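Posting this for the archive.
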Amino acid sequence: MKRGAAVLAALAGTIILGACVLSGERAADPPSPEYVLTYAENQPEDYPTTQGAHLFARLVYERTGGKVEILVNAGGTLGEEQSTIAQMQFGGIDFARVSLGSLAEFIPQLNVLQMPYLYTGADHMWEVLEGPVGDTFLHTLEGSGLVALSWYDAGARNFYSASKPIETLEDVEGMRIRVQDSVLMKAMVEALGASAVPLEYSQVYSALETGTIDAAENNWPSYDSMRHYEVAPYYTIDEHTRVPEMQIMAEATWQRLSPEYQAVILECARESALYERKLWEEQSRRSEERLRQAGCQVIELSPEEKARFREAMMSVYDQYCGGYMDIIQQIMETGEGREP
């Protein structure tokens, strides 16, 4: 009997202890958020920009004590970038990471920062973006219904083709090349003697496979993650554009938040940008190494041939940057003396 009583006492103690633990867990539960906000990202979950978005959301949640929760919707589930931007201007989506190629359709001044063959390399571009020129262009979003938060990296874009390598300017002539739905990108491809085919990102693989297009252009991680190398094995490194990307926020959402929350969001966006840039460098290197080993034919243009591609862009500069040549000159001077 004594042994049975001891067992029952021990069991009762365990139950009481468990109840106390559960009660403590309930007491430690985070408060309900004041704001649950949406974030649009068109890349897959393992992509650097998506990982940057998740870090941003986590930092904001932690630093607001769980009061601001941001739900990242990856894989384009909230729509293509231009549709996302339009929805944000009416407050339908709260945050997004978008390419300047898409954003410039709404704010044409941003074309300056993505002109073909403008930068000598990544270091040159970041010196521009993190200096007075970059700050000036962040402010161009004012009055657009959008708020600029931070710059994201997207590497250098290169051409890749299905049936033949692009080794000279003449190889591009007559090709049907997929581009983003951007007037600048269309003009660039047409200046090279090709036909520009605006096409949704998700449709590029099948278009290359069926011969609807002959080529496309993008960075190493995108070429890898979307498996475009399977149907377009010739990758030409010409680095025709370095198109920065931007984290943005709907102005309607921004205005609803307290100055304290606004400061946290800016701080976290900039921290996530540094993280994304590091991930981008690592993934670009891995993608390039993997695809070279997989047998993709990589063509590196000679300096002389690259100069021919650059010269073909003069008409594009005249068309899109006529009123901004002083800024173009300032950017180019920043890159003088750097190795291309």
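The radius of gyration is 25 Å. Confidence is low (pLDDT under 50) at residues 1-27.
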